[in-house]
Amino acid sequence: MPRVKVMSVIGTRPEAIKMAPLIEKLKQEPNIDSVLTVTAQHRELLDQVLDLFSLKVDHDLNLMSAEQSLTDLTIKVLVQLKEIIIQEEPDLVLVHGDTTTTFAAALASFYQKCAVAHIEAGLRSYNKYEPYPEEINRRLTGTLADLHFAPTVENYNNLLEEGVSADKVFITGNTVIDAVLTMVQLDYHFDKAILNDIALQEEKIILVTAHRRENLGQALKNICCALKRIAESNPAVKVIWPVHPNPKVKEIVYKEVNNIDNIMLLEALNYQDFINLMARSYLVVSDSGGLQEEAPALNKAVLVLRDRTERQAGLKAGTLKLVGTATENIIAAVEELLHSEQKYQQMISVENPYGDGQASKRIVDYLQYYFSLSSIKPNQFS
C-alpha cells in the first residue's frame, strides 16, 4: 500500500492544543508518516502543551526571542523551514489557524511547491487590523492553501465567496473541541494548589483573559477598571485572571487591579488547569479567539472583549456576546448575566456550534480519501 508523508507545523500554545488530537490520529495511521515541526514562536507555553499531550517533536527551530518583531519572526521561519521541507520532502504540510508561524510556513511550503492544508480555515472578521496580525495571516494562508478544513458552514461559505472551489473545502468542526473534551475531569486536582480550595467554594467565578495586541494600552486599562468595579459591587463573585506573560500586559494588569480581595491574579496556567477552572466557572470574559470555541463546549457563556469577531457561528448561536472594551459596556454585560437567570440560561443552553469531538478523525479520513488511500469520502460536520 502506498504511503504519504504529512508534516505538521506549529508555533504557539493554541496551535499545539488544537493540533494535538489531529497529530495523534495521524500517528495511528499505518499508511501515513507523520512529522512534527515546531517553530517555538512561543517557547515555554508551547512546551507545556507538548508535554501534556506527549507530542514527539522531529524538528525544533527554537525561534523565540525577546521583543522580536513580526518581520523578524517571519523571516526566521521562512529561512529555517525551507531546509526542513527540502530534507523531509512531505507530500503535504499542515498549518493551523492564523499565527505568524501559520502564514510563514504556508509561504515556505509554496516556495518549495509543496501542498498545504489549512486547519481552521475560513474564519474572517473582514477588518485587516482586528485581530492584528491574525486576520491577514489567515487570509494569506487561505490564498496559499490547496486544502481548506473549515470548522463551520459559515467558514465554508466565506471561502466559497472568495472563489475557493467547493471541492477544496471540507467542514470538520473545530479540533479544539476534541482536545477540550479529553481534559475535563470531575475530580480534577489542580497543579496550582490555591485553585483546589476555590473549586470547592460556592462563589460565582468569572474567568478572565486579555492579551490581544489591539487591546494593549488604554483598552486594557478600561477592562481592568470594569473588572475592579464589578468585583467591588459583587463581593460574592470571584474574578480569576491568569495573566498573559507579555510584559506589556502584566505591567498594566498588576498596576490596575492588584490587591483587590475578590480578584485573583495568577501566572499563566497549564492547559489542563485552565480548562478545568473554566469548567468550574460561571462566566468567561475574554478577548481570546480560542476561548470563544472552547467555553461553549463546556456550556459557558462568553463575553468577548472585542468589537468584532471572526467566530460568527458563536454569535449566531448565542453562545458569545461582543462587548468591546468600553468600561461601562463590560460592566453592563457582566451585571446582566450575574443577575438575570433568564439571560444567562439563554447563552449556556445553546448547542455548541463548533464541533462534536470528531474533527480530527474527519480530517484524517479526508486525507486518506484525498491521497487515494481510501475510496470512502467521509461526511462533513453538520
UniProtKB/TrEMBL annotation:
Task: Determine the domain of life of the protein's source.
Answer: Bacteria
Record key words, sorted? Isomerase
Enzyme class, spelled out: isomerase
Q: Tell whether Isomerase is among the UniProt keywords.
A: yes
What Pfam families does the database record attribute to this sequence?
Epimerase_2
- What does the record give as EC number? 5.1.3.14
- Respond yes or no to whether keyword tRNA processing is given for this record: no
> Which CDD domains has this protein been placed in?
GTB_UDP-GlcNAc_2-Epimerase
Q: What one GO molecular function would you report for this record?
A: UDP-N-acetylglucosamine 2-epimerase activity
- Record-linked Gene3D superfamilies: Glycogen Phosphorylase B
Family that this chain belongs to: Belongs to the UDP-N-acetylglucosamine 2-epimerase family.
Record-given protein name: UDP-N-acetylglucosamine 2-epimerase (non-hydrolyzing)
